[in-house]
Design a protein that fits this description.
This protein has about 325 residues and is of the alpha/beta class. The protein contains 8 helices and 12 strands. This is Tyrosine-protein phosphatase domain-containing protein.
Length: about 325
């Protein structure tokens, strides 16, 4: 996979504390990359299999009744320990297929499946109650002739949809291309109270594949979370509510984005070596196919180093994932 590693450029104009932080980041980035280039495809898939074996118990001894009727896919379970609970409901009726993923004490993700027609009202209850400030949708409503998600929001400006007691109005919409992303501002009204949030739909990230633009997952997450305060520095805002991420199943594309963000946070903020296979284990089974870890390694390689100096890592890993 090559043996030349390019070092990130240093900026002598940075303040001392940021310079030291960048130096530590570079140190751990270099350690991670040196280990990466020694790994074979089988090594990476072996790490994946270890994660799959330890991240989620194969059998839930006492599953919530909602697991049987409210999950989009029967083989993709929701971990009870970290699942989002619909508040002010009896235990028998508080289920939604969604899990918390903590970044730090001030920032959290909710990762969930794409709403089904029968769960749209539950979805908006979760959004309203948890004060979600942004929704990142990583799928289309229909892909390759299969329904992947219900139409749970009004797609066009000034359109309104009503789901039970929730009124959702689209007050702003714009479309960008390459990648294809629709950005909307939604106003949710429930029992006389209002909550406004941003909705981002990335429509051309193919299922079980890696996006054409390896930089874009971070760009979109940073925009959705409102978290970037400067180049190479993640300043997670305490005033913001959680960010909700979903695809169809809530594992592949959603999990890849969350794992990437956790990994970058560990590298930049915690100054620790990147280990994709530790943090996610208590939150959710983030990866569903053996191509997922390859995506993570490819993306982090591109994030840390100039791809032209990576000795082929950035170009080879995406090909391995296909």
């Amino acid at each position: 996979m090559g043996n030349q590693i390019g070092s990130p450029k240093k900026d002598s104009s940075l303040p001392r504390d940021k310079s030291l932080k960048l130096s530590r980041r570079n140190k751990y980035a270099a350690l991670w990359a040196k280990k990466l280039i020694k790994k074979s495809y089988d090594d990476i898939c072996g790490e994946y299999k270890t994660l799959r074996a330890t991240a989620v118990p194969p059998i839930i001894s006492d599953p919530h009744p909602g697991q049987l009727r409210l999950n989009r896919y029967r083989d993709i379970i929701c971990i009870e320990k970290t699942r989002v609970v619909l508040k002010d409901r009896p235990e028998s009726n508080n289920y939604i297929h969604a899990n918390w993923v903590d970044i730090n004490e001030n920032a959290r993700f909710i990762i969930t499946q794409g709403p089904m027609q029968s769960t749209i009202e539950d979805f908006w209850e979760m959004v309203f109650t948890e004060k979600i400030h942004a929704i990142l949708m990583l799928c289309s409503l229909c892909e390759e002739g299969l329904i992947k998600c219900a139409e749970y929001w009004p797609q066009h400006i000034n359109d309104v949809k009503v789901f039970g007691e929730f009124r959702v109005e689209n007050v702003f919409a714009s479309l960008s291309h390459s990648p294809k992303v629709t950005t909307s501002e939604l106003m949710v009204t429930y029992k006389g109270k209002q909550h406004t949030l941003r909705h981002y739909q990335w429509q051309d990230w193919p299922d079980d594949d890696i996006p054409k633009d390896l930089d874009f997952p971070f760009k979109l997450l940073d925009q959705a979370m409102g978290s970037m305060t400067g180049e190479g520095d993640i300043g997670l805002l305490e005033s913001q509510g959680p960010t909700l991420v979903h695809c169809s199943a809530g594992i592949g594309r959603s999990g890849t984005c969350a794992a990437l963000y956790l990994a970058r946070y560990a590298l930049i903020e915690e100054n620790s070596e990147l280990k994709f296979y530790e943090k996610p284990q208590n939150s959710k089974s983030l990866m569903y196919s053996e191509s997922e870890p390859i995506r993570l390694y490819a993306r982090m390689s591109s994030e840390i180093f100039d791809g032209s100096k990576m000795g082929g890592i950035v170009t080879l890993l995406p090909e391995m994932a296909r």
